[in-house]
Amino acid sequence: MKPFTVLTAVAVPVRLDKVDTGMILPGRFMRQHRRPGHDYANAFLHDLRFDESEALRPEFPLNDESYRGAEIMVVGADFGCGSSREGAACAVLDYGLRALVASNFGEIFAANCLQNGILPVYLSQWVIEEIWRQLENAPGSRITIDLPAQTLKAPDESVHSFEINKTRKERLVRGLDDVDVTLQYMDQISKYENERRKPWLVGDSAVRRAVEDGGR
Amino acid sequence: MPATMFEKIWTDHVIVAAPEGEDLLYVDLNFVNEGGAFLAFDQLRMERRTVRRPMQNLPITDHYIPTVNRHLGIPGISNPEIRHVVAMQDDNAREFGLPHIHMHHHNQGIAHVVAPELGLALPGMLITCNDSHTATNGALGAIASPIGASMQLRHVLATQAVWLKKPKTMRITLDGMLPLGVWAKDVILSVIHRIGIGGAAGYCVEYAGSAIRAMSMEGRLTVCNMSIEAGARLGMIAPDDTTFSYLAERPLAPKGDAWEAALTYWQTVLSDEEATFDREWHFDVTTLAPIVTWGTSPEDCSSIDGVVPDPSAMTDAEHRSHAERALQYMRLTPGTRLAQIAIDRVFIGSCTNSRIEDLRAAAQVLKGRRASVPGMVSPGSTNVKKQAEAEGLDRIFLAAGLEWRDSGCSMCNGSNGELVAPGERCASTTNRNFEGRQGRGALTHIMSPAMVAAAAVAGKLTDVRTLMKS
């Protein structure tokens, strides 16, 4: 995972609330292995970026040349609500964004972003409105996100603090993967299985029977 | 110290505690649907990892399989991308040595229907699944958490543990007796309407109160199922006699001495009377009426005797702009009576409302009547299907002119290609009315199974109570 420390980048304002994961990655795009050269960049917010004939919707901010190269997107409330489709976070990453800023995110989506090295930044809606205004008045303006300091510097140099859970912050800053961290605790996991698991759950014969004979 | 049910079960599964951060928790049982799971298996392969405890990880194929012509098998799936996803799940289960409830299995069904009905989901368990409606299983008194389909799922498969941030606790107390024609679906829609789709974000919700206590297991599963629609990843209901009677009949629940030991333990995991919740809500269900959605978010709903709201009358700017866009998408005019909205088709199914009680409620309305629009019924599992056929429900649906399908997620989100056409209006028992959820340009109204049946008969959204009286 790519470490995330301090990012200064062009930010694009997208004034839309309740953009759900189905809009971020429409279902028809998520049926193939995701690998280099065949990723979800084109699928990202596809139906908002393109019309029915696959022509660019010029009014959509991501299609506006003045925000070219944006790595930060400032969006409306509840971005990423809806189904837990992991590919939605992958689509954000593949499109080239490293941070999303909103007053609230779909919880599962936000967790998926963090697992993929994308930082969701939570700020109050009035700050979001203010940043939208600044970005629209001077398209192409940059924002600085300092994860170790947990601050975001808007184009007008105003600095806003944000919250992030401690575990995710540490892993993101150091680019640490969860499985590698957990492998240090394998003894404790085995100990849990041997000593603390409920006797009526151990053996897991129920699953075996579910597939073998359906319990009949 | 007094503790809530959630706190007790959580503490019981903590392997590494990290205050202010995420705890490492033990996963008793992990279900794997094919939607996106291939990303996790791809990752495991690249990292040369194996599945640590194969018998605690159960792939159940439900999202991408067709609900017709299943005898043709995987080669019979005409869309190559969909076929590929189903085949990948088969291959991955085989390669990693996992048990698999595949499309031809006699226990096949939607994961969140299959797990409770077989007795795999039990009180006190910690369950995960790569699906946002995993909290359905919380109705039994379990912590049932959605996890991401790639990185998080791959972590559970490799370690049988999961890193989760401990949520805050919320109790939603629902008191009163449900009026005739009002169901669990109406209860949860009313809750989402009141607290909003972000209202329970960051919380584990415990549903309590006399209305919950009086509810069947099926109804409770429906309530917990839609916790995520209020923003909560976890929803739970304390196990009681209803739960225990239900479990006693489950084929794979503990038996004999194991049952006695389990029962003793289950009675200790209830919330202590002095336990406090971070947030409390109280609602009275006595005055509820059947509810339908009018917009593109589950909170956009109203009782059937209402009208399409007027965005310009909304004081909150965010609500106003959302409602404007929603009505434009839904092709609805403010002030239109909800009971006058004509529909093009119906869908009865999904992990929200496809259990036997749901099918009975719909069949009761359809009995002796004809649907005036096309539609399909997809039972929640192959076992539900058998049960329904034994009760003759299939004949009622067929006689009404609806299709009687096999089990799967189907038209709830259309990942198997069974879609609502652009511009078509569908009365649906599902959980989400988001833009494009049932297909691009599909216009979804969600409601209870009885209300969908009533809509099918009338060809428009209809108060089911008028059909129940006649």
Feature tags:
heterodimer; A: 216 residues; alpha/beta; Aconitase, domain 4; 2 domains; 7-stranded mixed sheet; 33% helix; 15% strand; B: 470 residues; Aconitase, domain 3; Aconitase, Domain 2; 3 domains; 4-stranded parallel sheet
How would you summarize this macromolecular structure in one to three sentences?
With 216 residues, chain A is α/β, with parallel strands linked by helices. Helices cover 33% and strands 15% of the residues of chain A. Chain A has helices at 21-24, 46-49, 87-95, 107-115, 125-137, 166-174, 178-183, 186-195, 205-212; strands at 6-14, 72-75, 99-102, 119-122, 142-146, 151-153, 159-161.
Description:
Chain A has 216 residues and is of the alpha/beta class. Chain A contains nine helices and seven strands, in the order βααβαβαβαβββαααα. Chain A has a seven-stranded mixed beta sheet with strand order 4-3-2-1-5-6-7. Chain A starts with 5 loop residues before the first strand and ends with a helix. Chain B is α/β, with parallel strands linked by helices and 470 residues long. In chain B, 32% of the residues lie in helices and 16% in strands. Chain B has 16 helices and 18 strands. Chain B has helices spanning 5-13, 38-46, 80-95, 111-118, 151-159, 184-195, 210-213, 217-225, 241-248, 256-266, 317-330, 356-366, 382-390, 393-399, 449-458, 464-469, and strands spanning 14-16, 22-26, 29-32, 57-59, 126-129, 143-146, 161-165, 168-175, 203-208, 234-237, 279-284, 291-293, 301-303, 345-348, 375-377, 403-404, 425-428, 443-446. In chain B, strands 16-15-14-17-18 form a five-stranded parallel beta sheet. Chain B has a four-stranded parallel beta sheet with strand order 4-3-5-6, covered by helices on one side. Chain B has a four-stranded parallel beta sheet with strand order 10-9-8-11. In chain B, strand 14 (345-348), helix 12 (356-366) and strand 15 (375-377) form a beta-alpha-beta unit. The mean pLDDT of chain B is 96. The chains are: A alpha/beta (216), B alpha/beta (470). At the A-B interface, helix 3, helix 4, helix 6, helix 7 and helix 8 of A face strand 2, helix 2, helix 3, helix 5 and strand 7 of B.
